[in-house]
Design brief:
The protein has 106 residues and is α+β, with helices and mostly antiparallel strands. It is built from two helices and three strands. It has helices at 2-26, 63-95; strands at residues 30-34, 40-45, 50-55. The model has no long low-confidence stretch (mean pLDDT 87). Binds to DNA and alters its conformation. May be involved in regulation of gene expression, nucleoid organization and DNA protection.
Length: 106
């Protein structure tokens, strides 16, 4: 029984290392999002760090419209990045989970 516990602890440490490696890799996965008319473009990585924002000059003339575009486009980009992030990390975590009876349904 003690050997099983040690084996499980080793597997958890291995999974933790894989999660950290996945987080680093997600820094290199980029999500591009644009407003419906293409006047605002945002790039962020799958860890939800903004990497670039491109603003068409016409938006600079209307502060309120620019703010609305930023909110809408950033929220869409963050939602996409979150989906990628969660899917990748869940796959790694599931891979490292021990087989516990009844837990495979979660």
């Amino acid at each position: 029984m003690f050997g099983d516990m040690m084996k499980m602890m080793g597997k958890l440490k291995e999974t933790q290392k894989k999660v950290e490696e996945t987080k680093k890799r997600l820094d290199t996965v980029f999500i591009d999002e644009a407003s419906s008319d293409g006047q605002l473009k945002i790039t962020l990585n799958a860890n939800r760090t903004i990497k670039a924002i491109e603003i068409d000059d016409t938006l600079l003339e209307d502060k309120e419209q620019l703010e609305d575009y930023l909110i809408l486009t950033l929220n869409k980009a963050i939602t996409k990045a979150t989906s990628v992030n969660e899917a990748e990390l869940a796959a790694v975590a599931k891979e490292g989970m021990p087989n516990i009876p009844g837990m495979d349904m979660l």
